[in-house]
Structures are given as C-alpha cells and as structure tokens.
Q: What sequence folds into this?
C-alpha cells in the first residue's frame, strides 16, 4: 500500500467511558471535560496543528475527544474500526455507561465525526485474523501502528490517556503502549488518575516516555 506522506503523524489510544458493570472507576462520565482539556493541552504542548495526521479507533471517551480536538485544529484524522461500523457502535460507543447525571451523547458525536470531510474511516475485515473480542482490537492496534509508520516515513509517535496499569488483555491502551514501545516509538502519556482524583478539577499529569518505556 502507498501511504500519503504527512509532516507528522500521531496515534492516539485512550480509555473508554466506564461501562455500568465496571467494578473499578477509571473514566466515569463526570471527568470528560477534564480529559478533553488534558488532551488539548498535550496537543498544544507538542505543537500539533493542521499539518499533522491523527490516527485512532473512534471509541467513546479518549478516542473521540482526541478526534474532536484534532478536527478543531483543522487536522485530518483516520479512524480504524476493528469490525463493521454498527457492531463497533454497539461495543465501543453506544453501550450502557456508568450511572451519571451527564447526558450520554456519544453516538451523536461519533456520527458527527464520521460525517466530517477531514475524517477517513476504515472498517477492518477479518482477513487479517479473528474478528471476535479482544483479538480484533489488538489487530486494530497493530494496524494503526503500521499505518502511522507508513504515513510518517518510519516515525512512530503515540499519545495515550492511560491509568498506567499494565494488562495481559489484548487490544486495550496498555497493549498499544507496549506495542509502540516494542517498535521504539515515542510515547506521550496523559495520566488519567489525577483527573479521577480531582473529579475533573485539574488536568492530568503528562509523561514523555522514552522509546524503551520505563
């Protein structure tokens, strides 16, 4: 595949809004404004503008907040869905969230992003591996990394909204962080834990990880 070259390409991976059956609070709906501010602050700090291509998955929470922030800068975004759009909507956007007074408008935001002229959406098929559960999300993570390397001429750069907890589960933010480390990429980490602790009153800590992690 021939990739269009961009001055800069960044991949984003971040936690989704907590589902109603999540036992440990990680990204409750109430901290969305603080998460959006933290992502915007990171983009500002990195000097990301209209000449940067953003690559992410499009789930509610970090992915869509990143996408909205990139579009506000006039930057193009590529969304990679691990399977067909309607299934992705059910599993990663329009599921039952944690109980909250905050209105759930993620579906509307998802479709508004998809309709934006600067957004390209790729629905992955099962040709590259299994199309079920975590394996599909893991395959999507690896595809986004390869696309970023192709667009960026070999450079790999990740922004993540992450709680810093390693996980053996495939396909999540921890999996993406480890995969980027393995490829020697640069990682810019927005720690979601202070956002949760402050109940949305302060931006998260930002970590610039070395290519080898740590």
A:
């Amino acid at each position: 595949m021939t990739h269009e070259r961009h001055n800069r390409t960044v991949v984003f991976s971040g936690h989704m809004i907590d589902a109603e059956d999540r036992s440990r609070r990680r990204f409750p709906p109430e901290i969305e404004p603080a998460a959006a501010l933290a992502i915007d602050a990171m983009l500002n700090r990195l000097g990301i503008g209209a000449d940067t291509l953003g690559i992410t998955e499009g789930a509610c929470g970090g992915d869509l907040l990143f996408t909205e922030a990139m579009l506000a800068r006039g930057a193009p975004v590529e969304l990679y869905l691990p399977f067909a759009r309607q299934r992705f909507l059910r599993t990663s956007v329009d599921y039952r969230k944690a109980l909250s007074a905050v209105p759930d408008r993620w579906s509307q935001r998802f479709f508004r992003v998809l309709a934006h002229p600067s957004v390209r959406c790729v629905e992955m098929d099962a040709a590259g591996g299994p199309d079920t559960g975590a394996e599909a999300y893991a395959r999507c993570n690896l595809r986004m990394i390869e696309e970023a390397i192709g667009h960026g001429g070999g450079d790999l750069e990740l922004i993540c909204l992450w709680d810093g907890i390693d996980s053996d589960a495939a396909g999540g933010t921890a999996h993406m962080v480890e995969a980027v480390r393995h490829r020697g990429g640069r990682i810019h980490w927005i720690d979601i834990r202070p956002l949760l602790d402050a109940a949305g009153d302060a931006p998260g800590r930002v970590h610039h990880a070395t290519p080898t992690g740590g």
Observations:
- The radius of gyration is 16 Å.
- Confidence is low (pLDDT under 50) at residues 200-205, 209-214.
